[in-house]
Amino acid sequence: MATLLRPVFRRLCGLPGLQRPAAEMPLRARSDGAGPLYSHHIPTSPLQKALLAAGSAAMALYNPYRHDMVAVLGETTGHRTLKVLRDQMRRDPEGAQILQERPRISTSTLDLGKLQSLPEGSLGREYLRFLDVNRVSPDTRAPTRFVDDEELAYVIQRYREVHDMLHTLLGMPTNILGEIVVKWFEAVQTGLPMCILGAFFGPIRLGAQSLQVLVSELIPWAVQNGRRAPCVLNLYYERRWEQSLRALREELGITAPPMHVQGLA
Amino acid sequence: MAAPGSCALWSYCGRGWSWAMRGCQLLGLRSSWPGAPLSARLLSQEKRATETHFGFETVSEEEKGGKVYQVFESVAKKYDVMNDMMSLGIHRVWKDLLLWKMRPLPGTQLLDVAGGTGLAWVLGDAEELPFDDDKFDIYTIAFGIRNVTHIDQALQEAHRVLKPGGRFLCLEFSQVNNPLISRLYDLYSFQVIPVLGEVIAGDWKSYQYLVESIRKFPSQEEFKEMIEDAGFHKVTYESLTSGIVAIHSGFKL
């Protein structure tokens, strides 16, 4: 029995990319290519990924302030979906450029002064306003760690950094209701398991009134827009700062929300 | 040693000992930045190129102290919770056994190094203790010596500050003596513990270091020899939980 189970056991506990049977002790930084593939990468076995996925899901539900757990959940469950997203980006001209140039959105890469000077109603100006009003910074996105492919690690990083753009496009604040609406949009757009889980489990913490509004108005609106819009990961936002937000919304087919969601936005 | 709340050691005592502990003079030594003072550092300039281990990584000896410091800064907040989670509360039993072995009496001068949570504090360096010679009756170090850069120096210091007749007691992770349990233990250590660290404390790397540093620590016999080299006599050890931890004991004569 033990001999039958041994190869299964080894696969479950072995590191990705190893040719020979893996030891149960994953070692760090090995010369056979099982070491880190990019900065911050932590190689993990299938068993570790499963445990991380379960643990992070439970912790995120238990303590909604653990945003890092939502990120971990996304990384450990998203491999297949990220491949699909990456392939789809390759097929789109703007998306392919993003994959090639790998732009990042952070306070070090953004020219905040320039964005401030842009006209009212432009994407750049409105994005900056969103950051100010909601008191968020693009630097709070943690780096990817548990994705075992360097290009896919970028894709999920890009998805995370684009999240604030989606808030701006959809006109949703960063309170729990606004986040759930954006999650529904993202779930339809990306198909990432973490977005789907977040979309369904997020509402657990809502009161009856918010829940009613969410289900009857906001979710249908988010889903409709998510379906209609082309993939939002294919937009090179950094080249569109001057574009008017209204024009961009029209281009994507994003309509005004059915009501103003109370919040800071 | 770690424990919740103040008057910490009381909670670890077996029922019979709680009254005995009250009379003891307890001092906890929390390891400060484990670097040597400037003068000592100038003397050891030739040794700068010396390398040592930090878990499974190789680092310079100079670096190790700082890296260990960072690990413990990071884990400090959730130290007790994580210990309970990782060992399923068994660490309390181990610490209880250490205390039982000690059998401290009223008036015993006890120094607990790498104290963790609880106790009254003195800040210092295990490799260079801020105490005079021949001061303490008992020197304990629980889950601390593994992280010291120069274990031999810490042992020598322990010897120095103990009174003649004084006892050295160390509770530390050790080598498992049973092959089946060893495999299960390795599996648990490497597959589960860093995940627990990430989920509970948001810190994978510190707990990866933890399980790696355990593998790097000498075996029961090797550590016994090191303690003897530092001048201790009647050195013995007792393995607990199949050797996952061991309590080493020695006397200064």
From TrEMBL, chain A:
Topological relation to the membrane, as annotated: Peripheral membrane protein
Residues involved in Zn(2+) binding: H163, D164, H167, E179
One GO cellular component, as annotated: extrinsic component of mitochondrial inner membrane
Keywords: Lyase, Membrane, Metal-binding, Mitochondrion, Mitochondrion inner membrane, Ubiquinone biosynthesis, Zinc
Major localization class: mitochondrion
Pfam families the record matches: Coq4
Highest taxon above the source species: Eukaryota
Claim: Nucleus is one of the keywords in the record: no
Localisation: Mitochondrion inner membrane
Cofactor(s) needed: Zn(2+)
UniProt-recorded Gene Ontology molecular function terms: 4-hydroxy-3-methoxy-5-polyprenylbenzoate decarboxylase activity; zinc ion binding
Pathway: Cofactor biosynthesis; ubiquinone biosynthesis
EC numbers on record: 4.1.1.130
Reaction equations catalysed: 4-hydroxy-3-methoxy-5-(all-trans-decaprenyl)benzoate + H(+) = 2-methoxy-6-(all-trans-decaprenyl)phenol + CO2
Self-association and partners: Component of a multi-subunit COQ enzyme complex, composed of at least COQ3, COQ4, COQ5, COQ6, COQ7 and COQ9.
Family the entry assigns: Belongs to the COQ4 family.
Function: Lyase that catalyzes the C1-decarboxylation of 4-hydroxy-3-methoxy-5-(all-trans-decaprenyl)benzoic acid into 2-methoxy-6-(all-trans-decaprenyl)phenol during ubiquinone biosynthesis.
Official protein name in the record: Ubiquinone biosynthesis protein COQ4 homolog, mitochondrial
Species in which this protein is naturally found: Gorilla gorilla gorilla
Gene coding for it: COQ4
TrEMBL record, chain B:
Pathway this chain belongs to: Cofactor biosynthesis; ubiquinone biosynthesis
Catalytic activity: 2-methoxy-6-(all-trans-decaprenyl)benzene-1,4-diol + S-adenosyl-L-methionine = 5-methoxy-2-methyl-3-(all-trans-decaprenyl)benzene-1,4-diol + S-adenosyl-L-homocysteine + H(+)
Enzyme Commission code: 2.1.1.201
Residues noted as binding S-adenosyl-L-methionine in the record, renumbered to the chain: T117, D125, A126
GO MF annotation list: 2-methoxy-6-polyprenyl-1,4-benzoquinol methyltransferase activity
GO BP: any one term: methylation
Any one Gene Ontology cellular component term annotated for this protein: extrinsic component of mitochondrial inner membrane
Compartments, as annotated in UniProt: Mitochondrion inner membrane
Keywords associated with the record: Membrane, Methyltransferase, Mitochondrion, Mitochondrion inner membrane, S-adenosyl-L-methionine, Transferase, Ubiquinone biosynthesis
UniProt main location, coarse: mitochondrion
Membrane topology value: Peripheral membrane protein
Function: Methyltransferase required for the conversion of 2-decaprenyl-6-methoxy-1,4-benzoquinol (DDMQH2) to 2-decaprenyl-3-methyl-6-methoxy-1,4-benzoquinol (DMQH2).
Subunit structure: Component of a multi-subunit COQ enzyme complex, composed of at least COQ3, COQ4, COQ5, COQ6, COQ7 and COQ9. Interacts with PYURF; the interaction is direct, stabilizes COQ5 protein and associates PYURF with COQ enzyme complex.
Family, per entry: Belongs to the class I-like SAM-binding methyltransferase superfamily. MenG/UbiE family.
Alphabetical list of NCBIfam families matching this protein: MenG_MenH_UbiE
Protein name: 2-methoxy-6-polyprenyl-1,4-benzoquinol methylase, mitochondrial
